[in-house]
Design brief:
By secondary structure, this protein is of the alpha/beta class. 21% of the residues lie in helices and 26% in strands.
Length: 330
């Protein structure tokens, strides 16, 4: 889907897209639910997205779609992903022309081994196969092995990390847990991709990956800051080539972090329905609407309050409202 040559970014459009992540259940809550999705909150959010006016061009689902962690049982992982797809298609968003972009999270590609969490090539292949309808590029980096000056990838990441253009803008999708590269990104590949898009005149540049680069104000779990040199190289490239936003999830909440004033912002959109520790704030489930025009990016966090002690419970009496809103640009 990446265009090249003269006029690559001349067809500018006004449009919206939605970002949402982390709708999976805790393992102990998956009994009798083959999808492993927080069903009420998943269905409610998709129903509300389907009523947006205008409808979004894209829905980026930013990882941890399913509970996963299947002890390397790829048959079970495939079954969970197929159930997720079935329920997604029931929402009607496909038929309305909304383009789903599915991004892998740690629960799709990683397994718990002892005290560690290790990515498996078999899980990557399963995700790429089952979600192929919702993967929109194959121009990502290939395996290089431990070669100096490369991203040291041990598996082909060309469908797990890729980029595409739309409406005068450029989108980069990152896997944040490649095999033997957990909690790291292929920043060298990304830097080259961003440089080319910037030189070609991209109006806006967005990067999306599951794990945040920086800790949220409300979350203590580490993510890409486990490997600060890799994270800092990634962030420097985004700032150099004017990427406005890095959208992440992983932390089960909504938050913003801007390491350097006036430069790339991190927006955490992990409040899709996954469980949350009682002391994490704020606690509401929902989705993020991004409205694009020539000079502005309008960010709106939509959400409904959730019962902290019963995170799967229906909360029909709690309306979905604007929880945060701001504009990037003039």
């Amino acid at each position: 889907m990446v265009l090249s040559g003269c006029g690559r970014f001349t067809n500018k459009k006004d449009y919206t897209f939605v970002v949402m992540g982390d709708d999976r259940l805790a393992p102990e809550d998956t009994a009798g639910n083959p999808s492993t999705i927080n069903l009420y909150h998943f269905k409610r959010s998709l129903s509300e997205i389907a009523k947006l006016n205008p409808l979004p061009k894209y829905l980026f689902f930013n990882g941890d779609l399913v509970t996963g962690y299947t002890d390397n049982d790829t048959v079970r992982l495939a079954r969970e992903l197929r159930e997720w797809i079935r329920l997604y298609k029931e929402s009607g968003l496909d038929s309305k022309g909304v383009v789903l972009v599915a991004i892998p999270g740690n629960h799709e590609v990683v397994e718990k081994l002892g005290s560690g969490k290790i990515a498996f090539a078999s899980n990557e292949r399963t995700f790429a196969r089952e979600m192929k309808e919702y993967i929109h590029g194959d121009n990502g980096p290939h395996a290089t092995g431990l070669v100096p000056g490369t991203d040291s990838l041990m598996t082909d990441e060309s469908k797990m990390c890729y980029s595409f253009d739309f409406g005068g803008d450029h989108f980069v999708i990152l896997s944040t847990d490649a095999v033997d590269r957990e909690s790291r990104v292929p920043w060298r590949w990304m830097k080259k991709d961003l440089a080319e898009a910037h030189a070609a005149g991209a109006r806006h540049i967005f990067v999306l990956g599951h794990k945040p680069a920086f800790k949220s104000h409300y979350e203590g779990e580490a993510a890409l800051d486990d490997f600060p040199a890799n994270r800092d190289s990634m962030w420097a490239a985004m700032e150099k080539y004017n990427a406005e936003v890095y959208f992440s999830s992983h932390f089960h909440l909504w938050d913003t972090v801007q390491p350097h004033k006036g430069k790339t912002m991190e927006i955490v959109c992990g409040n899709g329905g996954a469980p949350m520790s009682k002391d994490w704030l704020p606690y509401y489930n929902g989705f993020t609407v991004v409205k694009i025009s020539d000079k502005q990016i309008r960010i709106t966090s939509m959400g409904h309050d959730v019962d902290r002690d019963h995170y799967m419970a229906a909360v029909d009496n709690n309306p979905t409202i604007i929880r945060a809103q701001f504009t990037i640009g003039q």
